[in-house]
Predict the structure.
Amino acid sequence: MSTHRRGPNRRRHLMLFAGAAAAALGLGAALPQLATAEPARAADRAPAVRAENAPVGFGAGTTGGGNATPVTVSTLAAFKSAVASDTAKVVKVNGLIPLSGQVDIGSNTTVLGTGSASGFTGGGLRVKEATNVVVRNLNISKPVAPADGITVQESTKVWIDHNSFSADREHDKDYYDGLLDINHGSDNVTVSWNTFKDHFKGSLVGHSDNNGSEDKGHLKVTYHHNHFSNVYSRIPSLRFGTGHFYDNYVQGAETAAHSRMGAQLLVENNVFRSTKVAVTTSRSSDVDGYAVLRGNDLGGAATEISQVGSFTNPPYGYTAEPASSVVASVTQGAGTGKL
């Protein structure tokens, strides 16, 4: 087993819990390959999984509200008021708040759920024309269309971490909108240690084949250590941008990672189970995308790689743990209540 490291600041994602640090935030290309790693074994499991105190990946440097004095809210009206401005702030959500539509989050904000069951149901959050936003430890469920669970739109420096997204697959596929969508030229986003469950449309990056004038050169997103369970597709679906998808655990997908409209996607050290197509570059758009696969445990899933990509060296420090330990660390560490 080997790890792939980039940059001088190499960090492991399997370490002991660091609650004090979390509180500071308010709390050449490789060819596509067949399965190359075994399922996780007991010997590969780390004793504990530490919640990071800062994002790794394209969203590195995002601090949200930093050390601002936290404000705790338990009603929708209080939450809307607390997150509206662009001044540095940390807003703690206590309890499960119903809403319809979406609430806009201002710049320089950390939104943090308390405990393991706080968050929003029926709608979601929108980060629009904002920068430096952190969203952690929220339950976000059943976002009725046209609301996404979280939308990141025309925004930069966003960290989505340790949240639990869910809906159901009993309704029509368009009854709910996306769990997490990133669009309109957004940039420098990290999506880490979240769970995504029971949904048709997981995470769309780039909303339209016709939006290249705004999206090209942007939509740089890292997904790592997320658990996708019973999500039909868009894990993620990436148009135009540059994506790094590593150390994720995908179960029960029809089509998982999808690169399209010239996007560059590096798919590294992930585990796929009960999945029909792990990675495709050739569906649903007039222009194919590009992908590089390395170190994945495909678990029998197919790949459809029409174009091998050139994105092999992410411009940030990270350590990709081997696929053999991903199931253990992700199931132990992803979702709410793990900070």
Notes: The longest strand covers residues 195-201.
